[in-house]
Amino acid sequence: DAGGRYERAVEHAAELVRLRVDVLVTDGMPAARAAKQATTTIPIVMGAVGDPVGGGVVSGLAKPGANITGLTLVTAEMNTKRLEFLKAAVPGSSRVAVLMNPDNPSVALGRQETEAAARSLGLTLHVVGARQPEDLDRAFSEILKEQARAVVLLPDPMLFAQGTRIAALAAKSRLPTVGEAREFAAAGGLMAYGPRVTENFRRAALYVDKILKGAKPGDLPVEQPTTCGLAINLKPARAL
């Protein structure tokens, strides 16, 4: 995943291709696109990706084609549910910040869904971008300046990896925050709703196994999550 520094993803993918690996496993949309750019022959397994069809990585979920398959983290109305849970947790709130990584192509779909949900729930959104970990302090300062009452995170590998820091900034700012995976709640965030990211990568190992045994990636359907879970951390809940 290039450590969240997506401008290096292409360089890393090219290096792995030069090493003649048998299979590439990717985390996140930028890494998947970099791998696709780097090779049309080495099989690619997406361990966790937002919208692979909308992001131009595969032609379809049922028949991805070419040398790519794997698993997506996207299910219908997931971002809508996160906003609904956040509004329920913070009654009376009308202004919500959306923290996203503008460099991640997958956030376009998530942003559209969140904006549509906000309209239906009567919420005003303020979108704040953070491309690198060092952008997070500035992002939360902007969120406070805009007088947002809560924060929703759009799924992104960099934000996921910075869960502990984001949770600490949210606690310092007294901002209820909802993320994509239970790891965010475990790191100190108020709550999270979505599929288990770790389970995605366990299942990615099954794809690798099938490919090493002769299966063609393009013939293996891209798998979507079948279950999602809501996690709430009572410590920040009590503090808030």
Task: Name a few traits of the molecule.
single chain, 240 residues, alpha/beta, six-stranded mixed β-sheet, three-stranded parallel β-sheet, 9 strands, 18% strand, elongated
What does this structure look like?
With 240 residues, the protein is α/β, with parallel strands linked by helices. It has 10 helices and 9 strands. Strands 5-4-6-7-8-9 form a 6-stranded mixed sheet, with helices on both faces. Strands 1-2-3 form a 3-stranded parallel sheet. Helix 2 links the parallel strand 1 (24-27) and strand 2 (44-49). Helix 1 (9-18) packs across helix 2 (29-38) and helix 3 packs across helix 4. The chain is elongated and about 55 Å long. The two termini are 33 Å apart. The mean pLDDT is 91.
Q: Would you spell out the secondary-structure blueprint of this structure?
A:
Blueprint: H1 9-18, E1 24-27, H2 29-38, E2 44-49, E3 68-72, H3 78-89, E4 95-100, H4 107-121, E5 124-129, H5 136-145, E6 150-153, H6 157-161, H7 163-172, E7 177-179, H8 182-186, E8 191-194, H9 197-212, E9 229-232, H10 234-239
Parallel strand pairs: 1-2, 2-3, 4-5, 4-6, 6-7, 7-8
Antiparallel strand pairs: 8-9
Helix pairs in contact: 1-2, 3-4
Strand content: 15-25%
Unreliable parts: none
According to DSSP, the number of beta strands is 9
Helix and strand pattern: HEHEEHEHEHEHHEHEHEH
Structure annotation, total helices? 10
The 3D shape can be described as elongated
Mean pLDDT, as a whole number? 91
- Cα Rg: 18 Å
Reported for the largest beta sheet, the result is: 6 strands, mixed
Straight-line N-to-C gap:
33 Å
Strand order of the largest sheet: 5-4-6-7-8-9
Structural class: alpha/beta
Helix content: 40-55%
